[in-house]
Amino acid sequence: MEITVQEFKHCDMITVKGRVDSSTAPQLAQALEAANDGGRYKLVVNMSDLEYMSSAGFRALLAAQRNSKRYNRGEVVLASVPERIREALELAGFTELFKTFDDPLQAVGHF
Amino acid sequence: MKNVQFAARFEFLDEIREFVGEIARAGGFGDKDIYNIQLATDEAASNIIEHAYENQPDGILDLSCGMQGDSIKIILIDRGESFDPSVIPIPDLKADLSNRKIGGLGIFLMRKLMDEVQYEARPDKSNVLTMIKHKR
Predict the structure, then answer these.
(1) Distance set, CA B2 to CA A37, B21, B37, B115 (Å)
(2) Residue B72 host element (H or E)
(3) CA-to-CA distance for B8 and B131, rounded, in angstroms?
(4) Do B97 and A87 touch (CB under 8 A)?
(5) Cα gap A102→A25, rounded to integer Å
(6) Could you give the number of structural domains in chain B?
(7) CATH of the domain at B119
(8) pLDDT confidence tier of residue B87, bands split at 50, 70 and 90
(9) Taking Cα atoms as reference points, which of A35, A46, A48, A41 lies closest to residue A13?
(10) What is the pLDDT of residue B58?
(11) Could you tell me if B88 lies within 8 Å of chain A, comparing CB atoms?
(12) DSSP letters for A75-111
């Protein structure tokens, strides 16, 4: 798994590539926490090159969404969610907790 | 059935997914089913590593997998703490953000993604999780 963070004027884009499981999810959680700790609460998680995500990844996203939405200071949105991952998120009832965008720049424009 | 033994550590989840994925592919499952079989197996193995072997860093996970007719059968055996899956609450998928709990989500996904999920805590102190998925 590989994470890159790109700062935009109104939000940060966190691009996650590869596979997120119990082994790699702590790195994702850390990247999301680091953004929050830096006062960045409007976050786009770009999944266009994500191959796989287990519930360990869902857990990291949920924690970040809770922290980001507190005091209405922001939110986490998901961009370019691959079909298989979208299906698993739906099964877990997570699609209602996150706005999703087909295109990462469209997600950036949301903020 | 092919058998393989792993040290119960998260770093081997990649290999665990590959092992069942290859058997599922050779058995004629499509991409969507293969992904879901790998996800269910990952969730099962993650639960064992995280909970059954919570206090045992040298735990061993035995994984068996094979096709039986038009079905894939996956068996995971550990010798850690046993648990009763029926007492794990079904996650409330309608709960709002602040009340959403993540516990039990792995088991929930396993049950949704596979056709059969059976758990048995045996008298010899081994715990046996069996999952089956049929080809459609």
Answers:
(1) 47, 13, 16, 20
(2) strand B71-78
(3) 19
(4) no
(5) 23
(6) 1
(7) 3.30.565.10
(8) confident
(9) A46
(10) 92
(11) no
(12) EEEEES--HHHHHHHHHTT-TTTS-EESSHHHHHHT-
Residue B109 forms contact with A (CB below 8 Å): yes
Residue located via tokens 């590989």: A2
Contact call for residues B51 and B76 (beta carbons, < 8 A): no
Q: Where are the domains of chain A?
A: 2-105
Q: Does domain A2-105 have CATH number 3.30.750.24?
A: yes
Of A21, A69, A92, Cβ closest to residue B97: A69
**What pLDDT is stored for residue B57 in this prediction?**
83
Residue B61's DSSP bridge partners are: B6
- Strands A2-7 and A12-20, how do they pair? antiparallel
Whether residue B88 is predicted with pLDDT greater than 80 in this model: the reply is no
ipTM score of complex:
0.95
Listed in sequence order, the residues at least 6 apart from A51 whose beta carbon sits closer than 8 Å to its beta carbon are A18, A19, A82
Q: Model's pTM, two decimal places? A: 0.95
Largest CA distance in chain A: 34
